[in-house]
Amino acid sequence: MSGEKKTLWSGRFSEGMAESTLAFTSSLSLDRCLARYDVLGSMAHSRMLARQGIISPEDGEAIQDGLRKIMAKIEDGTLPIQERLEDIHTNIEYMLTDMIGDAGARLHTARSRNDQVVTDLRLFMRDATLDTLDAIGLLQKAIMDQASDNLETILPGFTHIQHAQPVTVGHWLMAHFFRLQRDAERLMDAYRRLNISPLGSAALAGTTYKIDRLYTSSLLGFDAPCPNSIDGVSDRDFVAEYLFAAALTAVHLSSLCEELVYWSSSDFGFLEMADACSTGSSIMPQKKNPDVAELVRGRAGAAVGDLVNILTTLKGLPTAYNRDLQEDKPAVFATYDRLVPCLRMTAAMVATVRFNKDRMLAACKDGFLNATDLADYLAMKGLPFRRAHEVVGAVVRYAIDNRKRLEELTLSELRRFSDIIDEDVFSILPVERCVARRTSIGGTSPEVTPMQLSQGMSVLRRQSDFIDRERSRIEKAFRSLM
Questions:
Q1: What is the pLDDT of residues 288-327, one digit of tens each?
Q2: Is 281 a catalytic residue?
Q3: What are the tens digits of pLDDT across the range 389-440?
Q4: How far apart are CA 47 and CA 148, in angstroms?
Q5: Does the pTM of the predicted model rise above 0.85?
Q6: Hey, what domains does the chain have and what are their CATH numbers?
Q7: Catalytic residue among 265, 281, 454, 480
Q8: Which residue of 22, 250, 336, 356 sits 20 to 30 Å from the alpha carbon of 326, by its own alpha carbon?
Q9: CA dist 256 to 37, 260, 262, 323, 356, Å?
């Protein structure tokens, strides 16, 4: 087959498509990254066609041989792309037919562009999900390493961006770890619904050919074929689920980076970014800017936008295929291309950040972060906590008026507010003691935070085992195809 290529559906039309229509409807600029998956899906489909006797063994082998040659071109970057063809799927089909003749034209038997494209997208998203999980794990590992090194490094804990109670850097970091754990769990759970094969659904109604969907599903490493052909071609829940999990991950990254940005400022001085993760100013020689953290924070908004984009697209669609679904790819490709580098860069920042322990400890001495401990002390002496809260509020007010810290007040000054206060109060007021005494499960005490680290190690092993198992299963399936 040579000469100018027509559209795959040109038989119905008496005139060719306008250049403007081609440009408007083409997805080639986006879906080139699906080339490998398109070839793999076609290999599985053609092998099934030959096995079922729908095409001859000779045609089946010719198709397989041609697809292997096309795959080699994809892998070495020499695949020729014809811009006049509307998408990567058409390019590959025409290329195959040019290579092997009529046998290539038989490949599309018992298959529609509708089930072909969504199969390719699921194959791509399977890898994208595993890549995202791998990048989340990289950041979690960096967080755990820093947390382990800073179990006793004291940091002011904040609520409302106001000094609240002293915590440790390790405890604060592990809060971000467990956020990321939930992100990973969402992706692993969504993977189960993603790993379903729509191949064989055809346009929407299935096919009259005696195909074997269980076989093609197995060849591609899917868990099962989708149970309904209409749903098979129109389902984009797996796209929305990935985009939701990705958007929430991006929000969590933004929160972490927000703290890294303002804690690295001269006003706080709690930490310093490594030079490798910072930039300078074009006019102010003294500047060291946390631009990487700021860009990660900024790109979170685009992830949220991509989620809203796909949900808005899906909300108005009837069942079966609609061309609107072509718009699923810009959102999911953009989110994937942004999120994985953001996770990896954040891991690099966290791994190399240097904490100013003296500055953080000094900051804990101001702001009455030990006030709750004084209230707890009174409650343990028998005063109802609400009354203890009121007493300590009055003590704080007195200390502010006299420009003193709580631990600087004398016993006689403290006893003005409650006669149950005794000398032992001074053993609970230092911020180091405030941290050490919080030994409840999940607390900030260096005595119990290692429990969180131990749990984190189990989480990382579970996530790593999931990634390794699925990648091995996919690789084994694809090796059998080649």
A1: 889 999 999 999 999 999 999 999 999 989 999 998 888 8
A2: yes
A3: 999 999 999 999 999 999 999 999 999 999 999 999 999 999 999 999 999 9
A4: 52
A5: yes
A6: 10-109 (1.10.275.10), 114-362+451-481 (1.20.200.10), 371-429 (1.10.40.30)
A7: 281
A8: 250
A9: 35, 6, 10, 39, 18
